[in-house]
Specification:
With about 110 residues, the protein is an alpha+beta fold. It folds into 2 domains: about 15-55; about 55-105, SH3 type barrels (Roll), CATH 2.30.30. The chain has helices spanning about 1-5, 15-55; strands at about 60-65, 70-75, 80-85, 90-95, 95-100. The longest helix has about 40 residues, at about 15-55. The termini are far apart.
């Protein structure tokens, strides 16, 4: 009787492999939820930002990550020159440009 109690067979203990296989769908479901709620939208936003920076051209009104609004007057591979006032030109990295303003005439 003592040996029977020590094996755990009386309590109906499951095989450890079965326990892992039963938990696997939960891990997969959690990963899918995280992927569709966090990872995929971030990848889409990054692709959209990359397209916007690729299509950037002179004359576009843009907003920088610091909140500065200006007009693109010069472009290089990694830099953009913005006119932020009549006599003020500033160089920014293209990565700091976060939005192109559409329909803003100034």
């Amino acid at each position: 009787m003592d040996a029977f109690a020590q094996t755990g067979a009386a309590g109906g203990a499951a095989n450890p492999t079965t326990a892992v296989l039963l938990q696997l769908p939960y891990f997969i479901a959690i990963f899918l939820i995280i992927y569709f709620l966090l990872i995929r939208p971030q990848q889409q936003r990054q692709k959209q930002l990359d397209r916007m920076l690729k299509n950037l051209k002179k004359g576009d009104r843009v907003v920088t990550s610091g909140g500065i609004i200006g007009t693109v007057i010069g472009l290089e591979d990694t830099k953009a020159v913005l006119r932020i006032a009549e006599d003020t030109k500033v160089e920014f990295t293209k990565a700091s440009i976060v939005q192109v303003l559409v329909g803003d005439s100034k």
